[in-house]
Amino acid sequence: MAKELLSDVTIRTTKPASKDVRLFDGNGLYLLIKPNDSRWWRVDYSINSKRKTLSLGTYPVTSLPDARKKAFELKKQVAEGVDPSINRKASEEQDAKVLEEKERILNGQPPIDFFRYIAEEWYNKKMQQMADSYKGRLYSRLERDIFPYIGNQPISDITAQELLTVIQQIESRVSTNAQIFPDEAG
C-alpha cells in the first residue's frame, strides 16, 4: 500500500521515463505512465486466488477522485465475489448487441427478436441448396401470408391464437383455390 496518497500535483509533475512508471495511490489503484506520456489508471485485485488488473480510464479524462471512486466500486464487487472483468466483458457484449440492434432498425431491418428476422434467418439457412423458383415462391408466401400478420412482432409476444388465425387464413385461401382450380389442388 502506498505510504502517501497521490495528489493531482504529483500526477501532473511526474515526467515519463524510458520505462513504465507506476504511481501508487493505495488499495490496488495506481497511475501507469508510459514513455510516450500516456497515463492510465489501473487497479489490481485478486479473485479466486488470481491476480488481475483492470483499466479505469486515462488521466486527465478520468480524474484522481473518479479513479478512486471506480476502484472502490470494483473492490466492492470483488468483496461480493463478483469478478469485475467478467462484468465488464458482459456489459461490453450487451452494449455491442444494443448498438447492432439500433443499426439494424436504422437500416430498415427487423429487430433480432421479431418473427420476421427469425423467419428470414431460417429461410437463408434452409434455402441455400434449393432452386431459385422454389425459393421465390416460398419467400413470396412468407411475405403474403405471414409477415403482414406476425412479422413485426417479438417472437415471445406471438400467441397460439395468432398463429392459428394465420394458418386458418392460409387454409381458407388454399381451399378456395382448390374449388376454382380443381386440377391444381393436389
From TrEMBL:
InterPro entries named in the record: DNA_brk_join_enz, Integrase_DNA-bd_sf, Integrase_DNA_bind_dom, Integrase_recombinase_N, Phage_int_M, Phage_Integrase
Residue span, Phage integrase central domain: 115-176
One of the GO biological process terms: DNA integration
Entry superkingdom: Bacteria
One example GO MF annotation: DNA binding
Keywords: DNA integration, DNA-binding
SUPFAM superfamilies documented for this protein: DNA breaking-rejoining enzymes (SSF56349)
Stretches assigned to the Integrase DNA-binding domain: 6-90
Family stated for the protein in its record: Belongs to the 'phage' integrase family.
Protein name per UniProt: Uncharacterized protein
Species: Methylomonas lenta
